[in-house]
């Protein structure tokens, strides 16, 4: 059985989700505390897994915006703590 073919719009959204996932993990690497890093990694993985079933474009875009805000907050926290981002 093969997977259904994605439309161009679905493909672009998928690429955007994967890009955000990678950016979050790159930023998490810069967290100085090992236990916090582990906790953030687990939270990120579970959050993405819990939302994998969404297929509506508007829902995915809303979740992407939420993820981008969370990434921005993490980067701000790292900057305020003196960690280079």
List the defining traits of the structure above.
85 residues; mainly alpha; elongated
How would you describe the overall organization of this protein?
Helix content is 73%, strand content 0%. It has 85 residues and is mainly α. Helix 1 packs antiparallel against helix 2 (34-50) and helix 1 packs parallel to helix 3 (57-80).
What's this entry about, in short?
By secondary structure, this protein is mainly alpha-helical. The chain has helices at 8-28, 34-50, 57-80. It contains 3 helices and no strands.
- Return the string of H and E elements: HHH
Measure the end-to-end span.
Answer: 43 Å
Please tell me how large the radius of gyration is: 15 Å
Shape: elongated
Chain-averaged pLDDT: 93
Structural class: mainly alpha
Layout of strands and helices, then pairs:
Blueprint: H1 8-28, H2 34-50, H3 57-80
Helix pairs in contact: 1-2, 1-3
């Amino acid at each position: 059985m093969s997977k259904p073919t994605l439309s161009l719009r679905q493909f672009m959204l998928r690429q955007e989700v994967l890009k955000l996932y990678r950016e979050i993990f790159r930023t998490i690497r810069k967290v100085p505390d090992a236990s916090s890093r582990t906790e953030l990694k687990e939270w990120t993985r579970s959050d993405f897994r819990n939302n994998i079933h969404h297929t509506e474009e508007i829902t995915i875009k809303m979740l992407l915006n939420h993820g981008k805000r969370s990434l921005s907050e993490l980067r701000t926290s790292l900057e305020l703590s003196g960690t280079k981002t």
